[in-house]
Design a protein that fits this description.
Radius of gyration: 26 Å
CATH class of one domain: Mainly Alpha
CATH architecture of one domain: Alpha Horseshoe
Shape: elongated
Number of strands: 0
CATH superfamily of one domain: Leucine-rich Repeat Variant
């Protein structure tokens, strides 16, 4: 039977497919010059379900980007049974395939959350990053599992969880992230402070002000950025005090924050920073003054 006539009748096509016809005929139809035929072939493959997984996964890796897209669409419609195959595709050498698998996993929503959380534990940093990205695209259904991941024994899981929560921006993550600002690992503390700034809930202000007094610049700097994003004038005095730091990056972070907050009480101290020995700090002070004066 020719592909054109075969695909012209959807009911007949579906019937024969379920009756054991070679699925490769359907895959071949996705290469047809007629877009409507290609689209219908993908839809019917998705209706067939699990028996179509193997050829669709193969098509997902095809050199033809349109075929990749159609195969991905069909796999996403199949749903939960496709999840293990998408996860394997996330380990492919081809970046486009990894990216497409990430987006498609996100489209599966809540069903994909647990497998993606599990992938945060993988040793491959790129796989961890793509998994975290997919979780941010899923959004709200991923928040509670990500909050639990903030307590994982592996620091890199905690880091990715904090980053993802910041990207999602759900206020229910604020209190757990505040606790993570005191994490034993500096990278987690950094990520948690940065996430709090992205979420923008001012109840984080006090803990971030306290973080400015940490001896570790890898905590002080993101705390400053977060306070700048929060824009709470309550933090101005603490940021001004931070300008006395001997670490240029800490002074620079505090100046950036003061410029964002825009309280003119900081103007005198920013003018003093114009004579700072570090060029980055001087440039930041100049920009912050311009913001305050505009």
């Amino acid at each position: 039977m020719k592909t054109d006539s075969f695909i012209s009748d959807k009911k007949s096509y579906s019937f024969h497919s379920r009756g054991g016809i070679d699925l490769q005929s359907l895959i071949n139809a996705m290469y047809h010059k007629n877009l409507g035929i290609r689209w219908r072939a993908a839809l019917i493959l998705s209706e067939i379900g699990e028996p179509a997984l193997k050829p669709l996964i193969k098509a997902l890796k095809d050199e033809d980007k349109d075929v990749q897209w159609l195969a991905g669409m069909a796999l996403a419609r199949i749903g939960k049974p496709a999840i293990p195959h998408f996860i394997r595709a996330m380990t492919e050498k081809d970046y486009d395939i990894r990216w497409r698998a990430t987006i498609l996993l996100a489209k599966l929503g809540e069903d994909a959350v647990k497998p993606l959380i599990d992938l945060l534990k993988e040793s491959d940093s790129d796989l961890r990053w793509h998994s975290a990205l997919a979780l941010t695209l899923i959004g709200k259904p991923a928040v509670d599992p990500l909050i639990l991941a903030l307590k994982d024994k592996d620091w890199f899981v905690r880091v990715r969880a904090a980053w993802a929560l910041g990207e999602i921006g759900d206020s229910s993550a604020v209190t757990p992230l505040i606790q993570s600002v005191n994490d034993q690992d500096w990278y987690v503390r950094w990520s948690a402070a940065d996430a709090l700034g992205k979420i923008g809930d001012k109840k984080a202000t006090k803990i971030l002000i306290a973080a400015l007094k940490e001896p570790d610049s890898f905590v002080q700097v993101p705390a400053s950025w977060a306070l700048g994003n929060l824009g709470d004038e309550e933090s101005v005095d603490a940021l001004i005090e931070t300008l006395k730091s001997t670490d240029w990056s800490v002074r620079w972070g505090a100046i950036e924050a003061l410029g964002k907050i825009g309280d003119k009480k900081a103007l005198e101290f920013l003018k003093m920073a114009l004579d700072d020995k570090d060029e980055y700090v001087r440039n930041a002070a100049e920009e912050a003054i311009d913001k305050l004066m505009s």
